[in-house]
Design goal:
Layout lengths: L15 E7 L6 H12 L5 E9 L6 H5 L4 E7 L7 H12 L3 E5 L1 H12 L8 E6 L8 H10 L5 E4 L2 H5 L3 H4 L2 E3 L6 H9 L1 H12 L6 E6 L8 H13 L4 E6 L5 H11 L5 E5 L4 H7 L2 E4 L8 H8 L4 E4 L4 H4 L7 E3 L4 H13 L1 H14 L5 H17 L1
Parallel strand pairs: 1-2, 1-4, 2-3, 4-5, 5-6, 6-7, 8-9, 8-11, 9-10, 11-12, 12-13
Helix pairs in contact: 1-17, 3-4, 4-5, 9-12, 10-11, 10-15
Length: 387
């Protein structure tokens, strides 16, 4: 492990220089966590910068820069465009960071060899955060990640499920740091829930008595949108006054639009595209639904608890770390639209249960304060530099 003694001499007032490296700064759970981490960090002690690989995935760049954080675009046009590695090396040579913290397997698998290309006495400390499940990436990225992860000085998993999915040799030296969300935004929205609810319902032109079920997730196969659409069709067949809306975008947009038309859902299910106000949508929701087939620690569920939403989610990955069935939400098996529809119908029929689950979700959300996770990571940074 490379220690602080091998670096340039620091003055007592120098800040520790940290570069967070990610594949994308587009909409996504891992990306949102990264933005919140740098926003809540100790900027008197740490000098944070962020580098992202895919040039087109830049939606969250303004959110990072608004915190006074420098963002570096590495300029890849697609996954096979590895010219970004050259830009990354130039950046490391120019800035001489103390710590490089990789997020997401692609950035780590290809970024570590760049760090290793420097002489031993001139390499930053490196660490890696596993946001999802080790096995749920492409075989090539998983292979490269497995071959190079031994060079990292520390490994972090964002949930127990993500930790459990690590190879045994990696898990022996990994630790769980449960990440979270910026609770201050949620507090502000909850304080004016009635106003937020009126605004959303007016925008969607929902009649009185119609329940609003909200899903916030990218349009990818692992998010279970095919199941959600079938569930919505079942809910419509049962004559329940529930409108489904989905905030998100992704590669399955055309396929899901075709399924939507085939099921004849019309306005009973609406794709809203990417929404900057996703947290407000969940604040206004009667039910928040997450039908995923796989998850690490889903940011959207932590956000949903923070606004006191009544939640129905599938019991996969790190979801049970957030939701306890019957306590602060309802859990169902993945891939079963009829079971999902039954749970949603139960919440429609039992408004008292919706209110109780929402209240408990809000109370439990204090476990997921991103400021606590940020402080824990900064303690880890200090410890690594002391070794």
């Amino acid at each position: 492990m490379q220690g602080a003694g091998d670096r340039d001499v620091r003055t007592p007032t120098s800040r520790i220089r940290v570069l967070l490296v990610t594949k994308s700064l587009g909409h996504g759970g891992a990306e949102k966590l990264l933005v919140d981490l740098v926003a809540t960090g100790d900027h008197k002690a740490f000098d944070y910068e962020v580098a992202y690989i895919l040039d087109s995935e830049d939606t969250l760049v303004p959110a990072v820069e608004s915190q006074g954080i420098t963002v570096h675009r590495l300029g890849a046009t697609h996954n096979l465009d590895v010219r970004w590695m050259v830009a990354f090396r130039r950046l490391l040579k120019r800035k001489q960071y103390d710590i490089v913290h990789f997020h997401l397997p692609y950035s780590a698998a290809l970024g570590r060899p760049v760090v290793l290309s420097f002489p031993r006495g001139h390499r930053p400390v490196t660490l890696y955060t596993e946001h999802s499940l080790w096995t749920k990436v492409s075989p090539l990225v998983k292979l490269l990640n497995g071959l190079t992860i031994r060079f990292d000085d520390a490994v972090v998993a964002v949930s127990q499920a993500a930790f459990d999915a690590l190879p045994v040799r990696v898990g022996r030296r990994a630790r769980v740091v449960v990440h979270g969300v910026d609770l201050s935004s949620s507090v502000e929205l909850v304080s004016r829930r009635s106003e937020v609810r009126r605004g959303v319902r007016t925008e969607l032109d929902l009649p009185d008595g119609e329940l609003l079920a909200v899903t916030v997730a990218n349009l990818r196969s692992e998010k279970g949108y095919d199941v959600l659409l079938e569930c919505a069709a079942l809910v419509a067949e049962r004559g329940l006054p529930i409108t489904f809306v989905a905030a998100g975008a992704g590669s399955l947009a055309d396929e899901l639009a075709h399924t939507h038309r085939a099921l004849g859902l019309g306005d009973r299910f609406r794709f809203l595209g990417r929404r900057a106000d996703a947290l407000a949508l969940m604040t206004a929701a009667d039910i928040v639904v997450l039908p995923s087939r796989q998850e690490g620690l889903p940011v959207v569920l932590m956000e949903a608890t923070s606004v006191g939403a009544a939640i129905v989610a599938t019991s996969v990955g790190g979801v049970p770390q957030v939701i306890t069935d019957g306590w602060n939400g309802l859990l169902v098996s993945p891939g079963r639209p009829e079971v999902l529809a039954d749970a949603i119908e139960r919440l429609w029929a039992e408004p008292e249960l919706r209110a109780t689950l929402g209240r408990q979700a809000g109370a439990d959300s204090t476990r997921f304060d991103i400021a606590r996770a940020s402080a824990e990571l900064e303690e880890l940074y200090r410890a690594l530099l002391m070794d």
